[in-house]
Amino acid sequence: MMVFCKKGKKAQIEVQFNWIFVLIVGAVILVFFIAIVNVQKKAADKNLAYDILGKIDLIISGALTIPKTGQIFDMPRIDFNFQCDRISAFGVDKQFQDRIVFGPDLLRGRQLIVWSQDWNVPYKTANFLYVTSDNVRYIIYYNVTEQDANELNTELPDNITKEIVHANDFSGLEDRNNYKVRMIFLGDAYYTDIHNSDFLPQFMKDMPDSAVTAVQFFENDVMFYEKRGDMLVANEGLTVKILGKPMKYGAIFAEDLEMFNCSYYKAFKKLVYVSRVYSRRESALNISYADNNDCKGQARADTEIDQIAEAANSTPPDIVGIESSEGTIATKNNNALERSCAPVY
Fold first, then answer.
1. CA angle 175–82–61, rounded 5-degree value
2. Per-residue pLDDT averaged across 323-334, rounded?
3. Which terminus of the chain faces fewer neighbouring Cβ atoms within 10 Å, N or C?
4. Average pLDDT of the segment spanning 208-227
5. CA nearest to 216, candidates 194, 231, 247
């Protein structure tokens, strides 16, 4: 009888051990296959990212050839991280190199919207590109007069999600499930309440801080705001001088001051290079016209162009100096055209 009990216990132990062994082996096999699936999924995601980012690069290249026209492209259900010099997804990025691009730090939605503008200072210097999503909400805020708000609303592409809101209606705005909201304030006359904790509508207070941003435009300056809790706070309290409407649009689409500055200084760096080319051309024309009675008295603009290059190369760029030289160059360009001489630009 005792022998039987011992054998029974031994058999039970062997059965339990077999089950434990089966469970361990099964778990190892399961982990192995899960690891294979994860590796394959990551590889597939990367291949998808390479393919999509390549298409986005083609879209951007195409948009640069058709300025002032907003274009819409269907987006996959993928989040794209954006910086001023690259766009990325699944650890894969596509660099913009020397392109000057403005956009939010995250692109998410059903449609990618791309728009471009020529930046002329006064000669063509660069193409500015703006990218955004149909799920980013742009709110143009006004108080007394609608004129400036209507003008800006007309200038911005029709494809983006935009609206004009009077101050009296602002607090009553409703949530539309946008992942980002960008507010645009025009002028400084009526916005003493911006920093008040009661200013933002409740749905904006409930959104993550990174999802709510704002810009405020003065005559030739822009200030960036970020949300902190229930309030808007000026980003470092700094204003940036802007040159031309294309740069103003860049401030509207750029995520924040840091991303705006990245493209901002790229633009002025390009202005320096382009100006130096025009300056050399003007110097060569001065020499070639030495014996030309019709054009040798035509004052060329090499001095003013050099002044633009110097002003653009300063930190921060000397906007007033650039604008002053722009007017003189434009006048000399018109005079050259009237005399059938080679224009400045």
1. 115
2. 94
3. N
4. 93
5. 194
